[in-house]
């Protein structure tokens, strides 16, 4: 069959798709990946076939425009992001009022979802899909253009998610409460936008356009949200992009190794390089080897670090974590998933966006790590003590191994290909 993957132009979202795309490819299916032109080189760098659609996305410019149009303090503060309607990570039932939930969709639809799937991208996706006639479209949960294209050409379609399904959880709450306010106030911004997109291409809306006909989910079962949808569980398989194993990583460390990574844009939350240097020094004082993945800009703002801190621009997590006794990170879902894959205890300082805080709390609840609430206010020595607990108390390593066994019980991407074939045959309406 022909399978079209669709994501907006963000490398991290593409990386979530690569192992599933290759599983389908190696099973003999024709696989292509559609995104805006600025992701083309990244797609082809994975060995997959790219289909450029729409105009250049320029994610950095999109984020800047959001910041310019919304209160900057609310954008940067996790507690206030929900008040701004820019985040879906609120799970407390008492907070999920009609006013709150409707504001979230009223903000996320124009500022996020429509930016991820602009008209030019959707029109090109539909045009290509009607030409190529995919049997199955697998789309990133932020990129609704994939669902629109599937509906327009009669393909089956599924979401692919990593991490907690905050989108479906919030949408279920929204639909449940939609009938409560007076008829004049029952606005559904997401449905209204998607209806316009679909009608422009001769198709109609239903709720499957929001949540897919099924959802491919790599979240450990014990950590999933209780959302009533058709999920296809799959094991998380780490993918780091192009990478090389360095010389120093070809020998076992002489002492316990701790990996320190903050993602690509996590500097401000740590109060700048000087504070980051103090925290690294506190960890290094534990008589460990620290491998810190820092950008050149981050490194320039720090004073000299201890000799047992190895600073690298990039290191493939899938290569370094098997040698590590702990990892400190920001809560990114791929970092979390790779740590689970190698049974490495985690200290998570969540950046507050999307599901990072919830993942951090679930890791702590599982016993496989610790959550640090606010890196800007924590004392470096106290931070070092928490890392020491992770290294010295056997219960953390035991819980990390238990979490790994749980994920190993899930089918690998190759194993679910026959199920995807069956679901595609069941749901597609078009035929080549």
UniProtKB/TrEMBL annotation:
Domain Erythromycin biosynthesis protein CIII-like C-terminal, residue spans: 279-423
Annotated TM spans: none
SUPFAM superfamilies, alphabetized: UDP-Glycosyltransferase/glycogen phosphorylase
Residue stretches making up the Erythromycin biosynthesis protein CIII-like N-terminal domain: 22-263
This protein's UniProt keywords: Antibiotic biosynthesis, Glycosyltransferase, Transferase
Pfam families assigned: EryCIII-like_C, EryCIII-like_N
Family: Belongs to the glycosyltransferase 28 family.
Identification of the protein by name: DUF1205 domain-containing protein
Species of origin: Actinoallomurus oryzae
Organism lineage: Bacteria, Bacillati, Actinomycetota, Actinomycetes, Streptosporangiales
């Amino acid at each position: 069959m022909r399978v079209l993957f669709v994501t907006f132009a963000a490398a991290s979202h593409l990386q979530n798709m690569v192992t599933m795309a290759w599983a389908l490819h190696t099973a003999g299916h024709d696989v292509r990946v559609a995104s805006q032109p600025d992701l083309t080189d990244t797609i082809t760098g994975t060995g997959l076939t790219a289909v450029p659609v729409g105009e250049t996305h320029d994610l950095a410019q999109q984020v800047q425009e959001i910041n310019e149009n919304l209160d900057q303090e609310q954008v940067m503060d996790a507690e206030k992001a929900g008040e701004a309607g820019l985040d879906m990570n609120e799970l407390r039932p008492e907070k999920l009022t009609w006013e709150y939930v409707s504001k979230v969709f009223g903000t996320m639809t124009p500022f996020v979802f429509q930016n991820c799937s602009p008209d030019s991208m959707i029109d090109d996706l539909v045009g290509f899909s009607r030409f190529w006639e995919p049997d199955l479209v697998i789309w990133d949960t932020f990129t609704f253009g994939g669902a629109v294209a599937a509906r327009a050409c009669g393909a089956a379609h599924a979401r692919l998610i990593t991490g907690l399904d905050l989108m479906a959880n919030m949408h279920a709450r929204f639909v449940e409460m939609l009938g409560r306010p007076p008829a004049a106030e029952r606005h559904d911004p997401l449905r209204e936008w998607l209806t316009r997109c679909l009608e422009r291409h001769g198709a109609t809306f239903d709720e499957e356009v929001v949540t897919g006909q099924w959802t491919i989910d790599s979240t450990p079962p014990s950590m999933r949200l209780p959302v009533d949808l058709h999920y296809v569980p799959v094991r998380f398989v780490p993918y780091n992009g192009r990478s090389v194993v360095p010389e120093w990583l070809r020998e076992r460390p002489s002492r316990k190794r701790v990996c320190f990574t903050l993602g690509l844009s996590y500097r401000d939350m740590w109060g700048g390089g000087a504070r980051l240097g103090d925290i690294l020094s506190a960890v290094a004082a534990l008589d460990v080897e620290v491998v810190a993945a820092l950008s050149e800009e981050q490194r320039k703002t720090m004073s000299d670090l201890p000799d047992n801190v190895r600073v690298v621009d990039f290191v493939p997590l899938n290569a370094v974590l098997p040698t590590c006794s702990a990892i400190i990170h920001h809560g990114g879902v791929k970092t979390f998933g790779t740590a689970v894959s190698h049974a490495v205890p985690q200290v998570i300082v969540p950046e507050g966006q999307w599901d990072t805080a919830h993942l951090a709390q679930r890791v702590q609840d599982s016993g496989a790590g610790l959550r640090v609430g606010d890196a800007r206010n924590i004392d470096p020595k106290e931070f070092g003590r928490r890392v020491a607990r992770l290294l010295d108390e056997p219960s953390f390593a035991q819980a990390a191994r238990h979490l790994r066994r749980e994920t190993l019980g899930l089918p690998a991407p190759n194993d679910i290909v026959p199920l995807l074939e069956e679901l595609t045959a069941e749901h597609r309406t078009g035929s080549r």
